[in-house]
Each structure stands twice: as C-alpha cells, then as structure tokens.
C-alpha cells in the first residue's frame, strides 16, 4: 500500500513538472507598454542616441517599400526612432488598394553580419485591427535574396496599444546558425486590410551576436525566401 501511494505521488509529481515546464516554455513575452518597456540599445542604435528626424546616429542604413523616411510623417523608419506614441512615433497606415503581394517591408542593413538572438515588435496607438496578423522577420546577406527567420500567420500578438512583445531564438524561432547583414520586417496581412487605414507598427528592435560567420550554404536556403516572396 505504502509503495503504491509513493508511486502515485511520484507520478503526480512528474505530471506537475511536465505541466509547469510547458507553462514556463511559453512563447513570445509581453514586456509592457510604452517607450519605457522597449529593451533599448538594439543593433540599429546601441547607444540609443539616434536623431530620427535627421536620420543620424544610427548603426544601420534603412530602406522600405512604403513611405521610406523618418521625418515629417507616419513613415516607415519610425519603427526605429526609439519611441512609442502617436503620429510621428509610428509607421502607419498602408498604401491605397491594400497590402501588395510582396508585403509591406522595412529593412535595416548593417556593416557586418549578426545572428538574430531576439527581437521586439510593438503595436502602435491606433485600433487593433491595424496590427500585423501575417508577418515575417527575414534575413539576407545581399539585400535581395531573403531567408525567413520568424513567420507568423494567425491572431495578432498585441492585446494592448503601444505594447512591446519579445521574440527569442530557441523559443519562438530557430536558434540561428548563420549571421545576416540585412534584417527586414514584412507584413502580409492585418485584420482590416485592405479597407481604409489598415496597417501600423510602433517599433522594432533587433538584437544579435556578431560572432557567427556567413555560411556558404545560406545561398541555397535563399531559394525558400524567393518562393515566399513570389507567392
Ligand atoms: Ca547611435
Ligand atoms: Ca532602437
Ligand atoms: Ca518619428
Ligand atoms: Ca517608433
């Protein structure tokens, strides 16, 4: 009898451990809301001293296929202005006619390759229906052929405005084995696309490790990126 109850207790203990482990290993983490909840010091501006309106003090060159620029509007580079807030602190609100086949993307190019260790993406201040629902973070070493690092197709991650959500390698996407010199965020859909103003992102932070070499086989992997981009 005693052995049976000891065994039963043991089984219960294991079950409890398994359940709590799966809860601990939860996906993406909400860090909070507002500028103060950003991690800060990401690869694009390790010193957090960038002057967005002048596009100075950044360690990356930014490009985008929609509203490239920081100054004077709700342009795409505002995802790198180190701020969460209304109007000029965000990228909003999408091209007329809806999101194009290639998605809406904003890209940061660095002087050297980094393995993406973690990143944050934050919602902006407008209605939740404008938050990305189908989106990817992609890496490249020539700015033309891209590998998909993280992909999401489903509900929005953000349940509050100006909310900072963290995604980590090894938990939310594969631990990276190669470095990339280019990283971009691509949005393929939102809940309100393509009606009216249908898109927004508050801020993006990329963090990486520069000790990873670019592997030659990454050239093969780009075939997948090309198929994805052509869909
Ligand atoms: Ca800087
Ligand atoms: Ca930043
Ligand atoms: Ca701005
Ligand atoms: Ca911003």
Explain how this protein is built.
The protein is α+β, with helices and mostly antiparallel strands and 231 residues long. Helix content is 16%, strand content 32%. The chain has one domain (28-230): Jelly Rolls, CATH 2.60.120. The chain has 2 helices and 10 strands. Strands 1, 2, 4, 5, 6, 7, 8 and 10 form an 8-stranded antiparallel sheet that branches. β5 (132-140) and β6 (147-153) form a beta hairpin. The longest helix has 23 residues, at 2-24. It is globular, with a radius of gyration of 20 Å. Mean pLDDT is 88; it is low at 17-25 and 220-231. Bound molecules: calcium ion (4 copies). One calcium ion binds at residues 45, 47, 49-50, 57-58.
Concise summary:
With 231 residues, the protein is an alpha+beta fold.
Secondary structure elements and pairings:
Elements: H1 2-24, E1 29-33, E2 61-64, E3 91-93, E4 104-122, E5 132-140, E6 147-153, E7 163-168, E8 180-190, E9 199-201, E10 203-209, H2 218-230
Antiparallel strand pairs: 1-7, 2-4, 3-9, 4-7, 4-8, 4-10, 5-6, 5-8
This protein binds calcium ion (CA) (4 copies).
Q: What is the string of SSEs from the N terminus onward?
A: HEEEEEEEEEEH
CATH architecture: Sandwich
Mean of residue pLDDT? Answer: 88
Helical content stands at 10-25%
Give me the count of strands.
Answer: 10
Largest sheet: 8 strands, antiparallel
**What is the molecular shape?**
globular
Give the cofactors and ligands.
Answer: calcium ion
CATH fold label: Jelly Rolls
Helix segment tally: 2
Per CATH, the superfamily is Galactose-binding domain-like
Low-confidence stretches: 17-25, 220-231
Structural class: alpha+beta
**What is the domain tally?**
1
Taken as a percent bin, the fraction of beta residues is 25-35%
Radius of gyration using CA atoms only: 20 Å
